[in-house]
Design brief:
By secondary structure, the chain is an alpha/beta fold. It has one domain: Rossmann fold (3-Layer(aba) Sandwich). It contains four helices and six strands, in the order E-H-E-H-E-H-E-H-E-E.
Amino acid sequence: MTRELLIMRHCKSSWSDSGLPDIERPLNARGKADAARMGRLLAQRRLLPTLTITSPAKRARSTLKRIANAAEYRGDTQISDALYESSPLSVLELVAAVADDHQRVMIIGHNPTLEELVRLMTGSVVALPTGTIACLSLPIKHWPELTARPTGALQSVLSPATQPDQDR
């Protein structure tokens, strides 16, 4: 049995209000469209998770909201501080604590942590521009089996830049 982990960098955020704290930056217009596009793609490919954990940053929470709306996602959601200004090991610990009734989990967070996490988990160097999802297969039966040296396989990388331009 394997588990699946979808690692997503939040969609493109706005820098129009330089006075906003980083955690409060919203999505810009492209980010909103890309989040919806990625939600439709996850639904079309039957890759919807049963649990999505997001950073508390506004741009990450908004990414999840737009994905959920576009995909008609009804899975569980959580907000975790471990996905904001974190390390790959703290994210790994977060995922290792997931309940076993979740076969596929998605996390939505930030770089450089997520790119480092993919490298740690698979040995692959993968660029994660905004809105991109790395899909990993993990040879574990239970989430707590994740260790500091997981041996996952990169199955695919999904990017809004490579999806049809239906709504831009």
